[in-house]
Amino acid sequence: MPVPSHPTRRALLFGTAGAAVLLAGGPRTLLGTGAAAPRPALPVADTAVLLDAAPVTVDLGSQTVTTWGYGDRVPGPEIRVTAGGTVSARLRNNLPQDTTVHWHGVRVASAMDGAPWLSQVPVAPGGVFDYHFTAPDPGTYFYHSHVGTQLDRGAYGALVVEDPDEPLGYDAEWTVILDDWLDGIGTDPDEALERVRDPGPNPMHSTLLGGIAGHIAYPHYLVNGRTPQAPEEFTAAPGRRIRLRLINAGADTAFRVALGGHELTVTHTDGYPVVPVTVDTVLIAMGERYDVLVTLGDGVFPLVAAAEGKGARAFAVVRTSAGEAPPASVDVAELHGRLPRLSDLIADPSVDLGNAPARGVDLVLSHGTKGTVWTLGSAGDFDTPLRVPVAVGERVRLSFTNTTRMWHPIHLHGHTFQVQRAAGRGPRKDTVVVRPRESVTVDVLAENPGEWMLHCHNLYHSELGMMATLGYGDTPPTGPDMPGMSGPR
Predict the structure, then answer these.
(1) 319 and 207, same structural domain?
(2) pTM higher than 0.70, yes or no?
(3) 240, 236, 282: which is closest to 259 by C-alpha?
């Protein structure tokens, strides 16, 4: 990604062109300017995953594009592990840019988080980095690049952590990854970022929406890397009970998901169980995951993910018998039916955090006045990069107030939090939507030392400044010898 001609707030947080500013209350310390000791290679076991980040040509079904991804397809390889087991993944960078891998929603050690210039020096072109961590919690997660706009190419894949004592009863499970797609179709995400930053009068900027759910009208919306014109097809016998693991890997699009002719029972949000609730449709923001159970009827059914506010959809087919598939444009009544609100979701008692927090921190989501800048900071101070200090074992209540007219799915690395509702404690999550002109409060148990990103998961908002950190201690560790800051080989 080219260095902006004027620094963004995100650049002030994590640096550009090989340096970063740590968020300390005192003098700023540049990381990456000194020589870091090489990180010794971990042995690659037979079960290790190779994530070969490289330019790749992929068939989206109706169009072939050149993009950046892992391996020879988009999404990248699905990684599965049993809770308590280890993931060993070797990242090999064959891209023309630095890159990392972030394990979204997984409570990894800080050095494995893939946060560029915060917990890890990005892997330079030609470099290799070994991620090795325990996956402590069962659930549906995913992995993706956390450098620049690479997420809005094809640099992502599913990570499923299986429960060795799975309490749900079902016959099969399907992973459904939703995405918005523009790379290789006359533009790329870096160009899209510049259009979001400065829409200008140019006719090519007509792809910008400026709506509450996103900025960009993408040319394609995908289910598992396939367009509606050549959709993914899932097959099973009638009457089978299926677990759908729904992942929104999109950069700028929320999806409203429904299966024609069926009800959905929500069982998990962001990997954690909730008291089951039966609905017609679910609305999944960028970075969120929902697990739902569905008992299949007899026929051929549309699985639709409507791009919220964008007048388009991703589409797949569920088949339990012979017959012609419905068209991608088919009307699906369930999209207009029962939708679970955040206030409808209650954490299963087994994952309730319990206890009241020791203190509260008020955070404001704002749109800056100098150019297109998005901020996450303290009330009245939007220019100073924010670091929320915590102590090990502390419970902190974060209150997010959205002063803008757009959605902001806020994601915290390395932790989960519990949403607070007027009627009591809500679901455990790691990504929560703060709607326009609304406030959301979450409780965090600080039990994973390190420096952690806290940011909007609309990629274009985080790249333009809606980024902060949560860190342990009054000031962060500094210098190339801080944990996780060894350089790529």
Answers:
(1) yes
(2) yes
(3) 282
Q: Are strands 255-259 and 282-284 parallel, antiparallel or unpaired?
A: antiparallel
We report the CATH number of the domain holding residue 93 as: 2.60.40.420
Asked if 127 and 202 sit in the same domain, the reply is: no
Q: How many CB atoms lie within 10 A of CB 297?
A: 16
Q: How many helices (H) and strands (E) does the chain have?
A: 3, 32
Q: What pairs with residue 222 in β-bridges? A: 179
Q: Which two tokens stand for residue 163?
A: 């429960």
Of 455, 466, 359, 464, nearest to 412 by C-alpha is 455
Tally of domains in the chain: 3
Three-class secondary structure of residue 11 per DSSP: helix
Q: How far apart are CA 245 and CA 296, in angstroms?
A: 15
Does a structural domain hold residue 167?
Answer: no
Tokens 């806020």 — which residue? 410
Residue 395 lies in a domain: yes
Query: Domain limits at 85?
Result: 36-162
Residue after which a domain boundary falls, among 285, 306, 340: 340
Tokens 């709607």 sit at which residue? Answer: 435
Torsion angle of alpha carbons 421, 423, 429, 433, nearest 10°? -40
- Among the listed residues 156, 138, 82, 400, the one whose alpha carbon sits nearest the alpha carbon of residue 271: 138
353 and 330 within one domain: no
Q: 433: number of CA atoms within 13 Å, CB side?
A: 24
**What is the number of other CB atoms lying within 10 angstroms of the CB of residue 349?**
9
Q: Omega before 75 cis (within 30°)?
A: yes
* Strand ranges in 135-281 using DSSP code E only, listed in sequence order: 139-144, 156-162, 172-181, 220-223, 232-235, 241-248, 255-259, 264-269, 272-279
- Report, in this order, helix, strand and coil percent for the chain, each rounded to 5: 10, 40, 50
Q: Is 458 exposed, middle or buried (0-12, 13-18, 19+ CB in 10 A)?
A: buried
How does pLDDT run along the chain (489 residues), one tens digit per residue? 333 333 344 444 544 323 222 222 222 222 222 222 333 343 333 347 999 999 999 999 989 999 999 998 899 999 999 999 999 999 999 999 999 999 999 999 999 999 999 999 999 999 999 999 999 999 999 999 999 999 999 999 999 999 999 999 999 999 999 999 999 999 999 999 998 887 765 433 445 676 788 999 999 999 999 999 999 999 999 999 999 999 999 999 999 999 999 999 999 999 999 999 999 999 999 999 999 999 999 999 999 999 999 999 999 999 999 999 999 999 999 999 999 999 999 999 999 998 778 799 999 999 875 556 899 987 656 566 689 999 999 999 999 999 999 999 999 999 999 999 876 789 999 999 999 999 999 999 999 999 999 999 999 999 999 999 999 998 887 654 444 433 333
